Give the backbone structure.
Amino acid sequence: MADFFSPTSQGYLLKIHVVPGARQTAVAGLHGDRLKVKVASPPEKGRANEELLAFLARLLEVPPRAVHLTSGAASRAKVVAVDDLSPDLRKRLTALVPNS
């Protein structure tokens, strides 16, 4: 099982390592026990956080309101909650990092 996510009563918590200011927004594998996500936005005025949350919502096929930052607003190490109990969400999370 991938270490970057854990189930909660409302969905999942994701441990994320964010790299702002990248050429494009994309998942870049693992960084220790965190999912590494590069975002194109700079880390100014919360823009990188906004882009991260919108990207995760699209990637995981959940409504944007279901994805929110729980810690790490000013840090590269973040915890994101995904409030969705659909059975396919776990499969989509696992598929983010092949062979994990």
Summary: The chain has one domain: 5-84. The first strand starts at residue 5 and ends at 7.
